[in-house]
Specification:
With 865 residues, this protein is α+β, with helices and mostly antiparallel strands. The chain is 43% helix and 20% strand.
C-alpha cells in the first residue's frame, strides 16, 4: 500500500491545475484464459497480466507545471506525453507517472501490463470450479480503476470515456455505454462525463437476459431504456431475472416521478458477479452486485426485500453520485446517505415491500448506532485525509446514520420541499461535482428554512443522543410528560429532534395499542410535551414513535416493566421493532442484562410477525449469548437458546418462512448431542420436520455446527462438496473445514490467510469465518499474540481489502478477558506511528471488546441479585 495513497491536499492541487477532456481506453483481455499465471516475462508465479493502453486528453492551467497520473501495474511498456517518449523507468514508480513540463493542452499515452486481481479490487478474474469458465468484472471504489488503466484517480476530475476491449472468442463484453463487436474488438459508446471510480467492464461467458423500459413524459417525449441482467452460467437455473426487472422498472418509474430528471445514461445493465467484496456498485449503465443476491435455495421475504432495497439504492445513485458527484470523499454522504434513504423510500413507495421502514428502523439503524458509538465515529460529513480514510468510511455513519438524518430532515422540512430541493440540485449541478453547501442551498430555497444550524447539529457533529420519557401521574392521568435528552461526554451535542411520542395501553382483549400520539420538537436537555397532559395513564410511553428521528430510545421504569411482560402484545409492527431495537441498545450499553434480553427473545420472538425483525432478533440473541453473557453462564444461555429454537422450529407453520428462519437459527445455536443428532438426521433423511425442505444451502448451514463440534469430518465435507461442486459449495466447504475443532486445522487456516496470498478474497473471508468459533475459545487463544505480531506486516504487504478482512476478522474478540484488552492497548501504545486506517480498525475492535466486558459484568451482577 505505500505509494498508492492519495491525499486530499494532493487531489485539490491537481484539480486546480488540470481539467480532463476525455479518455480512450483499450484493454486486451485475451490473456484471461489459458494455462498458468505467468507474467509478461514468463516467470512462473508472476501475476497474470493484460495489456492496457490509455490515451488521456487534458488541459493544464499553468503551462510548464508538473503533475502526475495514477497507475498501479506490474510494468509499463511505454509512456508518451505530447508526442515525447518518456523513460518508464524514470517516470513510473509503481503507483504514479510523473508528468513534467505540461503544455496548455496535453495528450498522454500509456501502454502498460496490468494485473488481474484475486482480491476483488481492480479487474477481478474468477475461474468457476464447476465448468472451468473464466469470468471478469471490475470494481473500483474508491480508487482502483488505476489498477486497470492510467488515469487521474479522484472524483472531481470527471471526463467522458471511450472503451474498447479485445476478449477471448465466444465472450461477451459490457461497459458503461452500449457496445458492439466489430473485427474482433468490442467498442463502446462514449460515456457522459463521469468519475474514474464508476467506469466499469464486465467480460466473460455470462448468462444474459434482456428486457426494456419505456416512459412517456407529460410533454409527449419518450424514454426507452434497454435493460439487461447477467450472472454466471452455473447460477442461471436459480436466476429470477423477472423479479429483478420488475423492481428495476418500478424504481425507474418512482425516480422519474420524484426527480423530474430522466435517467441520463442510456442502457441499464445489472451484473451479478462472483467473489464480490461489496453489496453492489453504482456504475452508470452497468451496476454490479454480489451474486449472493441470486438465491440458490429457499430464503425468506426479508432476503428479497434486501435485494430490492439494494437495486433501488444503486439506482438512486444514478442521480445522487453519478450525475452529481461529491468533490472529494469528505462528502461521500452526498451519495451514500441519499441512496440509503432513497432505497427504502422507493421500496415502500414503489414495490411490494411496503413495510421496508420497519427493516430500516430495526436493521439499518442498528448498524448506525454501533458505528456512532465507536471511538472512530465521525460526523456524517467526515474529515477524509486520504484514500485509506475513504476506504474505511463506507460505514454505518455514512450510510445508515446519514439516511436516518435525511429521514429526520424530511420530517423537519416536509417531503415536498425535500424532493423539490433534490430536483433543483440535479438540474443545477448535472455532470458536475458538489460540496455540502450546494445541497443545503437548494434545500434552503425550497423549505424556506435556514439549513446551516440544522447541518451543524446533524451533519457536522458525531454521536447519538438518547431520549427518555419522564412521566408524572395523578389520579390515573398524566400530570406531566417530558422528554429528557442526553449525549455522551465524548460527543455532547444535544440536537433538535422532530419526534412523535406515543402512549400505549393494554386493552380488555390483551392487546397493547396506541391511544394517543403527539409530534413535537425536542430541544435541549428536557422538553415538556404539554399536549399529553391529562391523558389516561399509559402502560408504555414510546419516544420516537414512527421512527422520525435518529436516537437511542430509553424507557421509564413502568414502560420497561410493561415490555417485560407484554412486548409480544404490541399490535403495531413498527412500534414493536422500535422497542426491540431499544432493548438491544440497552443490552449493548450494559443497562439490561444479557440474560434478560435472551429471556425476552425466547418469550416473545415466536410471536413476531415481521420476518426481517425475527431474523434480526436471532442475530442479536446469539450475539448476547456469545459476547454479553457472563462467562460462567454461557453454557446455560446456549442451552436455553437451543431449547427455545427447537420448540419454535416445531411450532412454526410447516413450510413457512418463519420455520426456515428458526431452522437456520437452531443450527447456529446447536450445542448438544441431541441437537447434532437432529441436524444429522435432517441431512441424511432419517429425520424429517413437516414442511421443512432441506435444500443445498440449508444443508451447508446444518453442516457448519456439525463440523465445528467435531461431528462432521473432512470426508463428510468432501462428500458434500462432490454433491455441490460449485463456487458456492467451495466457499461453504472452506468455511466448514476451517471450523473443525483441531489445533492443526487452526494452524493451517491461519497460515493460509495470514502467511500466504494464494486464496482469493472470497476464500479468505470463508476461512476467517470458519476459524473464529465461539465454542473454540481455548483452541484459538494462542493466536492473540500472533495476531498483534502480524497485523502491521499484513497491512503493509496485502491489498487494503484483504488487510481490512484480516485485521477485523481475526481480532481475538472471543478471548474476552481483561488480558486481551491489555494486549490491545499495548499494541496501540507501541504502534502510534502505524497507518491511521490500521489503528482505526484495532481501536474499533478494542471498543467492541471493552463493551462486551462491561455487558458481562452487568449480566453477572444480575445473577447475584
Amino acid at each position: 500500500m505505500p505509494g498508492e495513497n492519495l491525499s486530499r491536499d494532493e487531489a485539490r492541487e491537481r484539480a486546480a491545475l488540470l481539467s480532463v477532456d476525455g479518455y480512450d481506453v483499450s484493454l486486451d483481455l485475451r490473456s484471461a484464459v489459458g494455462d498458468g499465471d505467468e507474467g509478461p516475462d514468463g516467470r512462473a508465479g508472476a501475476p497474470r497480466t493484460f495489456r492496457s493502453v490509455t490515451t488521456i486528453r487534458f488541459r493544464c492551467s499553468e503551462p510548464g507545471a508538473a503533475s502526475f497520473a495514477d497507475l498501479v501495474a506490474p510494468s509499463v511498456t511505454s509512456v508518451s506525453l505530447n508526442g515525447r517518449d518518456l523513460d518508464p523507468g524514470e517516470v513510473f514508480d509503481g503507483a504514479r507517472i510523473l508528468l513534467e513540463d505540461l503544455a496548455a493542452e496535453n495528450e498522454l499515452v500509456v501502454d502498460a501490463r496490468c494485473a488481474y486481481s484475486r482480491t476483488g479490487e481492480g479487474l477481478h478474474r474468477f475461474v468457476d470450479p464447476e465448468d472451468g469458465e473464466v469470468y471478469l468484472y471490475t470494481q473500483y471504489e474508491p480508487a482502483d480503476s488505476r489498477r486497470v488503466f492510467a488515469n487521474f484517480e479522484q472524483p472531481d476530475l470527471k471526463a467522458p470515456y471511450r472503451f474498447e476491449v479485445r476478449a477471448p472468442e465466444g465472450w461477451t463484453v459490457w461497459s458503461n455505454g452500449a457496445g458492439e463487436l466489430a473485427d474482433g474488438v468490442w467498442k463502446f459508446a462514449e460515456t457522459k462525463p463521469i468519475s474514474t471510480y464508476i467506469t466499469c467492464v464486465v467480460a466473460g461467458p455470462y448468462h444474459y437476459v434482456t428486457d426494456s423500459y419505456t416512459r412517456t413524459f407529460e410533454d409527449g417525449s419518450k424514454l426507452e431504456i434497454p435493460l439487461g441482467a447477467m450472472c454466471r452460467k452455473g447460477l442461471a437455473p436459480h436466476f429470477d431475472a423477472d423479479d429483478v426487472f420488475l423492481v428495476t422498472k418500478q424504481g425507474l418509474d418512482f425516480f422519474h416521478d420524484h426527480f423530474d430528471y430522466p435517467y441520463p445514461f442510456g442502457k441499464y445493465d445489472q451484473a451479478f458477479v462472483p467473489e464480490y467484496n461489496l453489496g453492489a456498485m453504482e456504475n452508470p449503465g452497468l451496476v454490479t452486485f454480489r451474486e449472493e443476491y441470486i438465491f440458490r435455495g429457499k430464503v425468506t421475504q426479508a432476503s428479497y426485500e434486501a435485494r430490492s432495497n439494494v437495486v433501488l439504492h444503486e439506482m438512486a445513485h444514478m442521480w445522487f453520485g453519478d450525475l452529481v458527484t461529491m468533490e472529494w470523499w469528505d462528502d461521500l454522504w452526498l451519495k451514500e446517505s441519499f441512496a440509503d434513504f432513497m432505497g427504502t423510500f422507493a421500496n415502500v413507495g414503489a414495490t411490494r415491500f411496503t413495510d421496508a421502514w420497519i427493516t430500516f428502523a430495526n436493521r439499518r439503524k442498528a448498524w448506525a448506532y454501533r458505528a456512532d458509538q465507536l471511538p472512530s465515529t465521525h460526523p456524517v460529513t467526515a474529515d477524509i485525509r486520504d484514500l485509506e480514510d475513504a476506504k474505511l468510511n463506507f460505514d454505518g455513519i455514512t450510510y445508515a446514520k446519514g439516511a436516518s438524518v435525511l429521514k429526520q430532515l424530511v420530517a423537519y422540512v416536509g417531503q415536498d420541499a425535500f424532493l423539490e430541493g433534490a430536483r433543483r440540485y440535479f438540474k443545477r449541478h448535472a455532470y458536475g461535482n458538489t460540496r455540502l453547501g450546494d445541497l443545503l442551498s437548494a434545500l434552503g430555497e425550497t423549505s424556506g428554512r435556514d439549513m446551516s444550524a440544522w447541518a451543524r447539529s446533524w451533519l457536522q457533529t458525531a454521536g447519538v443522543n438518547s431520549l427518555t420519557p419522564q412521566v408524572l401521574l395523578e389520579d390515573s392521568r398524566v400530570r406531566e410528560l417530558a422528554v429528557v435528552q442526553e449525549a455522551p461526554g465524548t460527543h455532547p451535542e444535544l440536537r433538535p429532534h422532530r419526534v412523535a411520542v406515543g402512549l400505549y395501553r393494554r386493552t380488555a382483549e390483551g392487546a397493547l395499542e396506541r391511544y394517543a400520539r403527539v409530534e413535537t420538537d425536542v430541544e435541549g436537555p428536557r422538553t415538556l410535551v404539554p399536549e399529553l397532559a391529562g391523558a389516561d395513564a399509559p402502560d408504555l410511553v414510546l419516544v420516537n414513535d414512527d421512527d422520525l428521528t435518529y436516537c437511542k430510545i430509553r424507557f421509564d421504569a413502568a414502560s420497561l416493566d410493561t415490555l417485560r411482560g407484554h412486548l409480544g402484545e404490541l399490535t403495531d409492527p413498527l412500534a414493536r421493532a422500535l422497542c426491540w431495537s431499544a432493548l438491544w441498545n440497552m443490552t449493548r450499553d450494559a443497562l439490561l442484562p444479557a440474560r434478560d434480553f435472551i429471556a425476552l427473545v425466547l418469550r416473545f420472538a415466536g410471536r413476531e410477525s415481521d420476518i426481517g425483525v425475527l431474523q434480526m432478533l436471532h442475530a442479536w440473541a446469539e450475539s448476547a449469548a456469545v459476547h454479553y453473557t457472563a462467562p460462567g453462564r454461557r453454557a446455560e444461555a446456549g442451552r436455553e437458546l437451543c431449547r427455545g429454537a427447537s420448540a419454535e422450529l416445531y411450532a412454526a407453520e410447516p413450510g413457512s418462512e418463519h420455520q426456515l428462519a428458526w431452522a437456520r437459527f437452531y443450527a447456529r445455536v446447536a450445542d448438544a448431542p441431541e441437537a447434532f443428532e437432529l441436524l444429522t438426521g435432517l441431512l441424511d433423511g432419517t429425520t424429517a420436520i413437516d414442511g421443512l425442505e432441506v435444500d443445498q444451502e440449508l444443508r451447508w448451514a446444518f453442516l457448519e455446527p456439525l463440523a465445528a463440534h467435531g461431528v462432521a469430518d473432512e470426508p463428510v465435507l468432501a462428500a458434500e462438496l462432490a454433491r455441490d461442486d460449485t463456487a458456492s459449495g467451495k466457499r461453504h466447504q472452506v468455511r466448514c473445514l476451517a471450523a473443525r475443532p483441531s489445533a492443526a486445522v487452526k494452524a493451517q487456516a491461519w497460515a493460509q490467510v495470514v502467511e500466504s496470498d494464494a486464496l482469493s478474497n472470497a476464500l479468505v473471508e470463508a476461512t476467517i469465518a470458519g476459524f473464529d468459533q465461539a465454542s473454540q475459545r481455548e483452541l484459538t487463544a494462542p493466536y492473540t499474540e500472533k495476531y498483534f505480531a502480524a497485523i502491521e506486516r499484513v497491512w503493509r504487504e496485502r491489498s487494503i481489502q484483504i488487510g481490512m478482512d484480516v485485521v477485523r476478522g481475526l481480532f481475538p474478540g472471543l478471548q474476552d478477558r481483561p488480558q486481551t484488552l491489555a494486549a490491545t492497548d499495548a499494541w496501540l501504545q507501541e504502534h502510534r506511528d502505524a497507518a491511521p486506517a490500521l489503528r482505526r480498525l484495532v481501536l474499533e475492535a478494542r471498543d467492541d471488546l471493552a463493551r462486551a466486558l462491561r455487558a458481562q459484568e452487568c449480566d453477572a451482577a444480575a445473577g447475584t441479585r
